[in-house]
Design brief:
globular; alpha/beta; 2 domains; Rossmann fold; 6-stranded parallel beta sheet; 13 helices; 8-stranded mixed beta sheet; 367 residues
């Protein structure tokens, strides 16, 4: 089967997230049985094409002047012609910012599957006061088939697309995480985009400042930050300069090491479609603190982690304090519960489920 995938990101892009990693891990397991082409935006230093593990990657779009978003804007507008140009039996489209859904299903006669790894249009609409949510809502009508990462996302989309065909297939994690020795760890770890509005780093810093200084472990923040000045100013306001370490973007090996040596991971997000970091922490036998909101409360086990009332800074501070002072043996036991729960996130299992759904959709389309 010829599969054409529209991916708004690329694993080689220094600013990439978890979406392109998911696609690569799945497709490298399917490429011996299917002809797979992935269309991605260009980025500084990218080549027009590249092959990875039998997968053809073609980069579309270009940078215009000093406009940082021009790679993605020109990619977006290049897609209709590209969908017509590249022959395919199945079109997979990752929902992409800023509108999630697009008009691309109009440009193909092949069955289309929406891969919902990004569904933040309404949140962006509130942040920028632009009606992205309108396009997200009405664009869904062009899609019949959906791959979603959690049951809560299926319920959310199904309210608007009641006759849709859904497969709930979570993200996977690096197999090496399951091999890391379980340790009690020595710091609080945050990994991901360092952002206040969506990722809730402001809530984490506020809660961390409310901890007792005597029991406060170091807080390690790793990931890209769009507004470093704002972050530094907030850390200074809370008098946390000696307690918080900022590592910036880290590589895969550093990610493993930091995950293993963390006492626990904190994910203070206000909104997620899945949360790779929480799943990775569980696989690494590292407990996690999250707000008790979907889908975060699906991604982690309730026994091995701490679920905090949504956006309650006092309760978040109490959870930080609790896990910082919990006996080492209990932390390790919690980590073991997390690791057992995370077996569902092995890439082989994820890839098998996704291929099965691909074949079902393709077979239905051909009758």
């Amino acid at each position: 089967m010829r599969i054409l995938h529209l991916d708004p990101d690329d694993v080689d892009n220094p600013l990439s997230g978890g979406g392109p990693r998911r696609n690569l891990e799945i497709y490298r397991r399917l490429s011996s049985r299917h002809e797979i082409t992935v269309l991605t935006p260009t980025f500084p230093g990218s080549t027009p094409e590249i092959e990875r593990d039998g997968i053809r990657y073609v980069r579309l779009g270009r940078k215009i002047g000093d406009h940082g978003s021009s790679h993605h804007i020109t990619f977006f507008f290049a897609l209709p012609a590209a969908v017509r140009r590249f022959q395919h039996d199945l079109l997979i489209e990752d929902f992409m910012p800023p509108t999630s859904a697009t008009l691309n299903p109009l440009f193909t006669k092949a069955p289309v599957i929406a891969s919902v790894q990004w569904f933040y249009a309404r949140a962006l609409a509130k942040q920028y006061r632009i009606p992205f949510g309108f396009f997200e809502t009405h664009g869904l009508k062009l899609y019949k088939n959906f791959i979603v990462l959690t049951e809560s996302m299926q319920e959310h989309i199904q309210k608007q697309r009641q006759n849709g065909k859904f497969a709930v297939i979570p993200n996977g994690v690096d197999d090496q995480l399951f091999e890391l020795p379980a340790t009690p760890g020595e710091y609080i770890f945050y990994l991901g985009l360092i952002d206040f509005e969506l990722k809730g780093v402001d809530l984490l810093l506020e809660a961390y400042a409310r901890q007792s200084p005597a029991s406060r472990l170091p807080l390690v923040l790793a990931g890209h930050c769009h507004d470093r000045k704002r972050l530094d100013e907030r850390i200074a306001e809370l008098k946390l300069e000696t307690c918080v370490r900022l590592l910036g973007k880290i590589d895969a090996q550093k990610r493993l090491t930091l995950m293993q040596n963390a006492r626990f991971v904190c994910v203070p997000s206000r909104w997620e479609t899945f949360c790779m970091v929480a799943a990775e922490a569980c696989a690494a036998a590292t407990p996690v603190i999250v707000f008790d909101i979907p889908p975060l409360n699906e991604v982690v086990p309730t026994q091995g982690c701490r679920l905090v009332p949504p956006f309650d800074v006092d309760e978040l501070a109490a959870a930080l304090e609790d896990l910082s002072t919990t006996p080492d043996a209990t932390i390790i036991k919690m980590g073991e519960i997390c690791r057992n729960f995370a077996q569902r996130y092995r890439w082989d299992i994820v890839a098998e489920a996704q291929e099965k759904f691909f074949l079902e959709v393709a077979q239905e389309a051909t009758g």
